[in-house]
Specification:
22% helix, alpha+beta, 4-stranded antiparallel beta sheet, 9 strands
Length: 199
């Protein structure tokens, strides 16, 4: 009996030391938040960013984001660019806002305003002066056009649609999946138009 317990104890110790050959160890306690949190796929439809602005999903892969902040007093538009993680700065260039005004367009070029440690070349924060906006635009909900930027050497375009606050669909009023699908359909159409322009 004593030898039987010894053999069983030795077998358990050997198994514990070696484990299964096919198993792969992964330490989930050290995973970043982006790997462990559920991604709600609702960017650009009401998500509030690090600076209190609206988060815009610049592509379907969730790899490029922007946060648009409209300052009511100055009417300045500040755009912060991020990669996969909203809030983690990402360099951008060629930032412009094309507004639909009447039957025409008004192109507004943004200027880099580097954050600490950034330069004009690596800036993730860009500002469009409120003085350049048409006088009738008093808030973000009146922006109708496209926000364009280059990140990682690729051009991106995000469609902005004018709406009244009463018409604005809030995430708590609409299922996230529906809002997400509607946003992607509009983004895909605008992205195709932007690609045609660059050819």
């Amino acid at each position: 009996m004593r030898n039987g317990c010894w053999i069983v104890s030795l077998a358990i110790a050997a198994f514990a030391a070696t484990g299964c050959e096919d198993a792969q160890y992964q330490d989930y306690s050290k995973a970043s938040l982006s790997e462990t949190q559920v991604h709600d796929h609702d960017h650009g439809h009401g998500e509030v960013g690090k600076h209190g602005g609206h988060v815009l999903e610049m592509d379907d892969t969730h790899a490029h984001h922007a946060e648009l902040v409209f300052a009511a007093a100055s009417r300045d538009i500040t755009v912060y660019f991020y990669g996969t993680e909203v809030g983690a700065a990402k360099a951008a260039s060629n930032v412009a806002l094309e507004l639909h005004v009447g039957d025409g367009h008004k192109d507004l070029v943004a200027k880099p305003v580097p954050l600490d440690g950034e330069t004009d070349v690596t800036a993730s924060r860009w500002v469009i002066s409120g003085a350049d906006l048409p006088q009738e635009i008093k808030g973000e909900e009146q922006l109708d056009g496209h926000l364009a930027a280059t990140m990682d050497g690729q051009p991106f375009s995000y469609a902005l649609e004018a709406h009244s606050h009463d018409e604005h669909v809030h995430p708590e009023e609409t299922p996230a999946a529906t809002a997400h699908q509607e946003g992607h359909a509009a983004d895909a159409a605008d992205h195709a138009k932007a690609q045609e322009k660059t050819k």
